[in-house]
Specification:
single chain; mainly alpha; 12 helices; 279 residues
């Protein structure tokens, strides 16, 4: 076998393996969507139904209740607040630890790493008592506060890699050409940081949108985020679980995330490749 033939065979084998892995990865998503369209008798049948022929949208009608829209509004509010606040503070912190040399800088960077190693469950009691003392339990502000604290360390660490990758000489050259410091920053450095901000924003968005345990501690049963609302669909006492409705709810919860990814995927990919791996 010639060298060219061997390379082609290797490439075909790698591509085939990649396709198989992709199919295994996407099958649970397909099964979720498929089940959302099937009637209950087909879902409970011993023979699985792999295509939703003869299905309908009745499961979606059962979950599109006022509770769903209230939970959607709550999750969107909390997520947007967390992304905005986390990006502002992470951006300023990353600039500080990357551009300036000050006493305690290495200790601050080390503290960011240490904070990320603390299990979230270890902080539940202190966070609950803190929010209770501030009258922030069962509120958007309280939940947003603990989410920002949870995502901020990794966001700072990620953005620091992007800022390190942009030479400060670019700003200095712009200032020599007549730009002020602030104008040089916003004209030169800030556009180059856009991929990093997008990648960090995606991380904060996913953490806040999908978080479950902290919301269980902070929010009341009558004021639930989407993950808590979805859990409520699967926990039904004294009667069978409506799995098509559960899967329809999961599809509706995933839709905003898919839309968000479609909007930012180009920037996110370039951002993850260009700076996220820098220490």
């Amino acid at each position: 076998m010639s060298g060219v033939t061997a390379k082609r065979s290797t490439r075909v084998g790698i591509n085939t393996l990649g396709v198989v892995i992709a199919l295994i990865w996407i099958f649970p998503v397909y099964w979720m969507v498929n089940t959302a369209f099937l009637p209950m008798d087909k879902v409970r049948a011993q023979t699985p139904t792999f295509a939703p022929f003869g299905g309908d949208l009745s499961a979606f009608g059962r979950v599109l209740t006022p509770n769903f829209f209230n939970s959607m509004k709550l999750s969107l509010s909390v997520t947007l607040i967390v992304v905005a606040v986390a990006l502002v503070f992470a951006f300023l912190s990353a600039l500080a630890v990357s551009r300036f040399r000050f006493a305690g800088r290495k200790g601050f960077i080390l503290m960011i790493l240490v904070v990320q190693m603390i299990p979230a469950e270890a902080l539940f009691i202190s966070q609950y008592k803190m929010l209770q003392g501030w009258n922030l339990l069962n509120s958007i502000a309280g939940l947003s506060l603990v989410y920002v604290a949870a995502v901020l360390p990794f966001t700072v660490w990620m953005l620091r890699g992007f800022v390190d990758g942009i030479p400060a000489d670019l700003e200095q050259a712009a200032m020599i050409d007549g730009c002020s410091r602030s104008k040089a920053f916003f004209k030169i450095t800030f556009p180059l940081l856009a991929p990093g901000l997008v990648a960090s924003g995606v991380y904060a968005f996913l953490q806040a949108w999908n978080e479950f345990t902290l919301a269980t501690v902070v929010m009341s049963p009558s004021n639930q985020t989407l993950p808590l609302w979805l859990r409520g669909l699967a926990v039904v006492s004294n009667k069978a679980v409506d799995w098509p409705a559960v899967m329809a709810g999961a599809v509706l919860v995933a839709v905003p995330v898919i839309i968000f990814f479609m909007l930012v995927q180009g920037r996110m990919t370039s951002g993850l490749v260009s700076g996220a791996v820098k220490g």
